[in-house]
Design brief:
The chain has helices at 3-35, 38-54, 61-81, 86-89, 98-118, 122-136, 154-171, 178-202, 204-210, 215-219, 221-244, 252-269, 278-289, 291-306; strands at 139-141, 144-146. It is globular and about 50 Å long. The protein is 77% helix and 2% strand.
Length: 307
C-alpha cells in the first residue's frame, strides 16, 4: 500500500470524524437553544397564575399555558436570531441550528395565540412578540430606525413594562376594577425589572462589548444594588397597603415570600467580576427564576395544612 493511499485514507477518517464531532456539537447547541427558555416560560405561566390569585379570579389553566408559550416564543426567538452579546454571554448556543429555533418558536406562538384568540385576548399575544423584535432587531423605514436595545436601563424597562402589561392583562381581562390590575402590573413589572437587572450582572462582559448600557455597566454594582433595593421595598410596600385595604386578595404568603426572596437575590447576586460556579448558578436559577414555583408550592402546602 502506497503512502498516498494511506495518507488519503487517514485524511478521510479524520475528516469524517471531525464532521461527526461538528454535527454532534450542532445538535447539542440546538438542544440548548430549545431548552434555554423552558424554565423562564414555566415561571412566567406560574406568575400569570399568581396574578389570577391576587386579583381574586379563578385561574385559567389554558390562559397560563398560552402565556407560557408566548414567553417561550419571545425568549427563544431572541436567542435564535442571535445578538453580539449572546456570543459572549451564551457560548453554549454558538453553532446551534437557528432555523430549528425559529420553527419551534413559530409553533409555540401559533398555539399560544390560538388559545388566547379563543378567549378574546389575541391583542395581548402580540405585545411581547412585537416588543421583543423591536428590542432585538428593530425596524428601519427609510431614514427612520427604531431599536430599543442600547440605552441606559432600556433593556430592564422594556422587560418590566412588557411582561407587567402581559401578565396583568391576561389575568385581569375579567376584572371590572382597574386599581387591582394596576397593582398587579406594578408588582410583576417591578419584579421582572429587578430580575432582568440581576441577570445583567452575569452578562456584564458581553453587554459592555455590544455597547448595551445596562444598569450594572453604566451605574456600577453599588448604585445599581441601591436602586434595585429601593424599587423592591417601595413596590412591596404598595402591594402590602393594597392587601390591607382589600384592593387585592389577602395573600400575605405570596407577598412575604416575594419580599424576602427578592431581598436575598438583590444582596446575593448583584456582584460582578468573579467566576460563577455551577452551584451558584443553580442557586440563582432556583431563587430568581424558580421564585414563582416556590411560592405556588408553598401556597398549596399551606392550603392543605389549613384544610
Amino acid at each position: 500500500m502506497s503512502s498516498n493511499v494511506f495518507s488519503g485514507s487517514f485524511g478521510y477518517i479524520f475528516k469524517h470524524g471531525r464532521t461527526i464531532h461538528l454535527n454532534s456539537h450542532e445538535k447539542n447547541a440546538t438542544l440548548e437553544l430549545l431548552k434555554s427558555s423552558i424554565l423562564v416560560a414555566f415561571s412566567g405561566a406560574l406568575r400569570i397564575h399568581l396574578a389570577f390569585i391576587l386579583l381574586h379570579i379563578q385561574s385559567s389553566i389554558l390562559t397560563c399555558i398560552a402565556g407560557g408559550l408566548i414567553i417561550y416564543t419571545v425568549y427563544t426567538l431572541d436567542r435564535a436570531l442571535g445578538s453580539e452579546e449572546d456570543s459572549v454571554n451564551r457560548t453554549e448556543l454558538n453553532g446551534s441550528n437557528k432555523r430549528v429555533g425559529l420553527i419551534v418558536s413559530l409553533l409555540a406562538f401559533l398555539i399560544g395565540t390560538y388559545i388566547l384568540a379563543k378567549e378574546g385576548l389575541l391583542a395581548l399575544a402580540f405585545i411581547p412578540f412585537i416588543t421583543g423584535y423591536l428590542y432585538s432587531k428593530g425596524i428601519k423605514i427609510g431614514r427612520l430606525a427604531l431599536k430599543l436595545k442600547g440605552g441606559l436601563g432600556i433593556k430592564n424597562i422594556v422587560v418590566g413594562l412588557t411582561w407587567g402589561i402581559f401578565i396583568a392583562g391576561l389575568a385581569g381581562s375579567g376584572c371590572g376594577d382597574l386599581v387591582p390590575i394596576v397593582m398587579v402590573f406594578i408588582f410583576f413589572g417591578v419584579k421582572l425589572f429587578i430580575n432582568s437587572a440581576i441577570y445583567d450582572f452575569k452578562d456584564i462582559k458581553g453587554d459592555a462589548l455590544a455597547g448595551i448600557k445596562t444598569l450594572p455597566v453604566s451605574l456600577g454594582a453599588k448604585k445599581t444594588r441601591t436602586l434595585l433595593t429601593a424599587m423592591h421595598m417601595l413596590s412591596h410596600m404598595a402591594i402590602g397597603i393594597a392587601l390591607i385595604h382589600g384592593a387585592l386578595a389577602f395573600e400575605p404568603l405570596i407577598i412575604l415570600y416575594s419580599f424576602i426572596c427578592g431581598l436575598i437575590c438583590i444582596q446575593k447576586f448583584t456582584y460582578s467580576g468573579s467566576e460563577e460556579f455551577i452551584s451558584q448558578n443553580m442557586e440563582r436559577i432556583l431563587l430568581v427564576d424558580g421564585e414563582s414555583t416556590s411560592i405556588t408550592g408553598l401556597r398549596i402546602i399551606a392550603g392543605a395544612l389549613v384544610a
